[in-house]
Amino acid sequence: MTMSLNNIREAAQRIKPYAHRTPVLTNESLNQQVGAQVFLKCENLQKVGAFKFRGACNAVYSLSAEEAASGVCTHSSGNHAQALALAAKMRRIPAYIVMPDNAPQVKKNAVAGYGGQITFCEPTLQARESTLDMIRLDTGASVVHPYNDERVIAGQGTAALELLEDVPDLDVIIAPVGGGGLLSGTSIAATEIKKGIRVIAGEPEMANDAFRSMQAGAIIPSVNPKTIADGLLTSLGDLTFPIIQKRVEQIVTVSEAGIIASMRFVWERVKIIIEPSSAVAIGVLWEKKIDLSRLKIGVIISGGNVDLEKLPWL
Amino acid sequence: MTMSLNNIREAAQRIKPYAHRTPVLTNESLNQQVGAQVFLKCENLQKVGAFKFRGACNAVYSLSAEEAASGVCTHSSGNHAQALALAAKMRRIPAYIVMPDNAPQVKKNAVAGYGGQITFCEPTLQARESTLDMIRLDTGASVVHPYNDERVIAGQGTAALELLEDVPDLDVIIAPVGGGGLLSGTSIAATEIKKGIRVIAGEPEMANDAFRSMQAGAIIPSVNPKTIADGLLTSLGDLTFPIIQKRVEQIVTVSEAGIIASMRFVWERVKIIIEPSSAVAIGVLWEKKIDLSRLKIGVIISGGNVDLEKLPWL
């Protein structure tokens, strides 16, 4: 079944009691810097500090009472793990999280802090998948993939839905792309709500698998990418790629220097904490590889989870 | 003439086309940490990154066309200087700013960036005042004091007005106190809008002149205070002190460690950049010297102007 705006509207109703309606911020210095009128949809101010809560919450509350009783599970060491743990906690069901044993302590603590039950495994994709399989068979928990899941995609699309409610006359929406959950949800919402709106993705030059996939017309996996934008390391999924192919105008790559400069500018001028992955979307405007001047541009600020001990400009 | 809620309502109308209506944020981690329900009025997201824009803007747009033609002037090296420069730029009138010649380059640049015409002087109060006097006589510009000015006080009160529109059932409002412009405006708005609301101020232990003034029943000047909260170094004024005496329940002092811990917690969990002076208001909740548990508490986050090269926890 093809996903549509309806899935996103339903998700919006479903998560409304649990998620923040995040503010849309504007900033004159940023507008002048990039030569356009920018509207920042601040998912860094969402629960768990990232848009990921929307998708996880929609997935958890989409389960029947019977399904829910057995809990949910996933493998992730990032924001999705925290998001799923918190959504499950809200519904008072268990969340089983598979994490590589070399994940940073701060991420382990965060997931445990939201009540997630962590199973550690070796840091390989194979170990993650086999461990998750074992847990699923053991507990009967429902798997919630970080992005290749229609409930998750629909949830992520609710950010763009709200943004277009607040600023209906946007010319362009920019979102970062990693696995493509945010980008595909955003592109469905945007293109179905407003005919002719342009959806553009930002991707790190150093992890440009989605850019290359679009060129090739087939998913090209990401192989050991190294970028400061650590939320954008994953490859596209077989659900997200066709949506992106159909609805996203283009993917623009951003240099590491552009990511860091954009991140710092937003901290300094807009006064919000954004993570490098969010700065990739600003970076599209910052580096001006494509001409978006004088347009009204919505940017999904994906998250704000950073280590305050290690700032990239220090 | 006594100031009242009317002055603040008029200011709100006057500045509406120019100032941001800043968002009110909530955060579950913060609530749990302090044991209360906290609503953050984010003036760090205001123009120039501080509530100061409200007062400066109200003062500038209160001038008659004839007065305005000669411009405005002030002595300040902080957020008020930037705020006045920007408000004057918006009205297309000159802003003459007296700054000590040892002010940090970044502050000089910021004021110049907003089009302020800077005159440097020796870093003494006497030099500042005599230089300002000279400029006033030379240009006919209207002096806009950073806090001891009814137009400024009324402007600062509009933040609390908006906060109480968004969250009418607050039990307490907390604001930081330096010269008392924000605190007196906040206290007028709060106590006139809601009978019985408690207005509490946060002040650095290391710059506790307002605390001591309240005890003594007379203004005790601040003498060479040393605190990280560099927006709160000034003494109360003869306009702000009586308002504070009448309407503020108490002033709570906060340790340097409490300021830094509060600041870091807000950056890490709420994902917004706040300056140490803002953290002083959070510090009142953080240090729990007074029992505010389970109450609904509004906090005015006064600003977000910090040097990202020098974070106090690094």
Number of strand segments of chain A: 10
Assembly type: homodimer
Strands of the largest sheet of chain A, in order across it? 1-2-10-7-8-9
State the helical fraction of chain A: 40-55%
Largest interface: A-B, 24 and 24 residues
> C-alpha Rg of chain A, in Å?
18 Å
Shape of chain A: globular
Kindly estimate the percentage of residues of chain A that lie in beta strands according to DSSP: 15-25%
Characterize the main sheet of chain A: 6 strands, mixed
The secondary-structure class of chain A comes to alpha/beta
CATH class of the largest domain in chain A: Alpha Beta
- Tell me the CATH architecture of the largest domain in chain A: 3-Layer(aba) Sandwich
Overall pLDDT of chain A, averaged?
Answer: 96
Distance between the termini of chain A: 49 Å
State the domain count of chain A: 2
CATH topology of the largest domain in chain A: Rossmann fold
Q: Which segments of chain A are poorly predicted (pLDDT under 50) over 5 or more consecutive residues?
A: none
SSE series of chain A: HEHEHHEHEHEHEHEHEHHEHHE
- Counted by DSSP, the helix tally of chain A is 13
